[in-house]
């Protein structure tokens, strides 16, 4: 079962944006700049708690996120009771690497090596801090840019997306199954 919480409900409930429209792209960055990460993590914990009690649940719950959501997936692994977290090309993870020791579940990160929003220094810092963590797996996607797994996106790459999605599915089956 899947749940997609509206994490922007405090700013603009129910907002729908199209990345192919400049006005929407600009609005997305405004929302990103005003997003309260700590409250967002609280909302994710609430969603995880609800999922665990939902009819048909096996009591385990995880999170998946892309871009800002990839950062939130990382922080969810650090700050919530999630069993499994998956982050695709998460931004700003390098700013919170000191929280990795608090991870109790498991974390899978997909890193685009040519990410226009996560530079090489940030990627290296992530690898330096996380590669030897027993609960974290990082996969690099050589030559891939941000949003390589988003169908219809500018940088979509079918082969890399399939590889990342297959890895995600196997990870979730193992951790949540």
UniProtKB/TrEMBL annotation:
Residues 1-174 form the Dienelactone hydrolase domain. One of its GO terms (molecular function) is hydrolase activity. Signal peptide: none annotated. Transmembrane segments: none annotated. Coiled coil: none annotated. InterPro entries: AB_hydrolase_fold (IPR029058), Dienelactn_hydro (IPR002925), Dienelactone_hydrolase-like (IPR051049). Pfam families: DLH (PF01738). This is Carboxymethylenebutenolidase.
